[in-house]
Specification:
Structural class: alpha+beta
Strand content: 5-15%
Oligomer: single chain
Number of strands: 10
Strand order of the largest sheet: 1-2-3-5-4
Shape: globular
Order of helices and strands: HHEEEHEEEHHHHHEEEEHHHHHH
Radius of gyration: 21 Å
Low-confidence stretches: 1-24, 166-171
Distance between the termini: 49 Å
Length: 383
């Protein structure tokens, strides 16, 4: 089933318009997008997004039609911190390779040497179904279809996307779920924690994070059940699902896709979606049935191994969120005081969730977390 471009009559959704972030000056990405439209005022953006700078704009549908189709032009943000292991160096090549494999995915075309994605008109799943609420029966079915299609993708088909990238592990794709988890832990320890320790080390230490923090996870995750590797989206949260005007679920933002243990997609999804407890069990059962239907053996040992992968996701979030919060509270010599209290509560919650997998002897109070950030800003004077 091929994902078709979505045409809209007027303009991107209110959400997209509200998500615009006015640039301080014209970036290279904006100039590239502006060159494709007759009037720069038609550009909507940049749209919210961590990994890319994205603009939406209308272009004639062609074929003598007066209708317009909305497109997105997106460029990777320069100097970006990558907190997740990447497999494919080019998201657009992966999305192009997945046409016909994933039912509702944006299409990619070339226009004047620029890659454009179809703009999926609608609202994010987070707007329609915020955290704490269960999915509709229709969206549960479509999520199950996505899980089934991901496991069904032929690795040879997506090899044209240029992978593997920095995420290659020595033994290559196969079914060694333990080696897959160890590679993820190694990346978090070395490319997130240790790489940023020269700048954020004092903050890590005040919050109770130690150099051997991930050793406990290595011991617990040392005997996972082998499962045949499959394509993983790697970032299936509410803002990466768009609900179109017909009520159908589209999957966007494939930059963290990789090839590995399919159970990791379920763990990441459950961690990011913040479902009610009963909903977690329903979604896990949907995933199990979907992947087993597509490829028997894909869910082997899932009930025993899922808590281990969820523990890794909770631990990974600590390092990621501590750094991102420092960046969000900047860039001045002091934290933004109006944001500090809420940020401290959020980090304290993340630390409490990861206390067991990281072996934290105690979880700092909200006041202690806030004080750690204040002292870090005083000592570092971030630019």
């Amino acid at each position: 089933m091929t994902a078709l471009p979505v045409s809209v009559a007027a303009q991107p959704s209110d959400r997209a318009a509200a998500a615009q972030v006015p640039p301080a000056r014209a970036s290279e990405a904006r100039m590239r997008a502006a060159a494709l439209v007759p009037d720069e005022s038609l550009l909507v953006g940049p749209l919210k997004g961590y990994h890319h700078e994205t603009y939406a704009f209308p272009l004639p549908a062609g074929g003598g039609s007066t209708a317009q189709t909305w497109w997105k032009c997106r460029d990777p943000r320069a100097g970006l911190f990558w907190f997740d292991l990447r497999w494919f160096p080019s998201e657009k090549e992966l999305v192009r390779a997945l046409q016909g494999c994933i039912t509702r995915i944006p299409a990619v075309v070339e226009r004047e040497a620029v890659s454009l994605y179809t703009f999926i008109e609608g609202r994010t799943l987070g707007e329609i179904c915020p955290p704490g609420r269960p999915l509709s029966a229709r969206h549960v079915r479509q999520l199950g279809l996505l899980f089934r299609e991901l496991v069904s993708v032929d690795p040879d088909r997506i090899s044209r996307a240029g992978g593997p990238g920095q995420g290659r592990w020595p033994e290559g794709p196969g079914d060694d779920s333990t080696a897959f988890l160890m590679r993820l832990i190694h990346f978090t320890e070395h490319q997130v924690y240790r790489r940023h320790a020269p700048r954020y080390g004092s903050l890590f230490r005040e919050l109770g994070l130690r150099d051997d923090g991930l050793d406990r996870l290595r011991r617990v995750g040392g005997g996972l059940t082998p499962r045949p590797f499959a394509l993983i989206h790697g970032d299936l949260h509410r803002e990466n699902f768009i609900v179109d005007p017909d009520g159908d679920l589209w999957t966007i933002d494939w930059e963290l896709a990789m090839f590995g243990d399919p159970l990791y997609d379920l763990a990441t999804h459950l961690h990011l979606m913040r479902y009610p407890a009963a909903e977690q069990g329903r979604i896990a059962a949907i995933w199990r049935d979907a992947v087993e239907c597509a490829r028997p053996g894909s869910s082997d040992g899932w009930e025993r191994d899922l808590p281990v992968l969820l523990a890794y996701k909770r631990a990974q979030s600590v390092y990621t969120d501590v750094i991102r919060t420092a960046l969000a509270l900047g860039p001045g010599p002091e934290p933004q005081w109006r944001l500090l209290s809420q940020a401290a509560r959020r980090i304290r919650k993340v630390l409490a969730s990861a206390a067991e997998p990281l072996g934290l002897p105690r979880v700092p109070t909200v006041q202690e977390v806030g004080g750690a950030y204040v002292r870090w800003f005083a000592a570092n004077r971030p630019a």
